[in-house]
Design brief:
Helices cover 22% and strands 36% of the residues. The protein is α+β, with helices and mostly antiparallel strands and 147 residues long.
């Protein structure tokens, strides 16, 4: 197995995982554990431990991304799973408490709840943006656009 890192500039690097690997989160980077064919391993368990994201495969912690949950962190982790919207599920540092934040496909109730939460969060952000635009237009005394 390897840890794949896609930097914010799009550069891809791989680091062999021998035992347990620890790296510090890079701003804007997306991490994933990949197999020998460079395919994302989708049977991972991701756990928040303070500011670190621990990655477990087959019951063993194989990697840890330190400072993943640090303030203003923009790192992400590719779960290798396609969500209900057809997009790859990517875990970000946004407001998830201590403990398990993602489990492999065998734990569908947790993943379904997480996917629902992520979709709800996306909708809330979208509705907040609509309200913000409406407030700005109202402040400018311009009519609201028809949808």
């Amino acid at each position: 197995m390897k840890l794949r890192v896609v930097s914010s500039s799009g550069q891809i690097s791989y680091t062999e995982i021998n035992g347990s690997l620890s790296v510090v989160a890079e701003p804007g980077a997306t991490y994933a554990v990949v197999d020998e064919n460079l395919q994302v391993v989708d049977d991972v368990v991701l756990t928040r431990d303070g500011d670190a994201l621990a990655v477990t495969v087959d019951g063993e912690v194989v990697a840890q991304v330190d400072e993943f949950y640090a303030e203003n962190s923009t790192a992400a982790f590719d779960t290798g799973t396609v969500g209900t919207s057809g997009e790859t599920v990517v875990i970000t540092p946004s407001a998830i408490a201590e403990g398990v934040v993602w489990e492999a496909a065998g734990s569908s109730s947790l993943n379904t709840a997480l996917l629902g939460w992520l979709e709800l969060r996306r909708l809330l952000i979208t509705s907040r943006e609509v309200v913000a635009v409406a407030q700005k237009l109202k402040a400018l005394r311009r009519p609201l656009p028809r949808l």
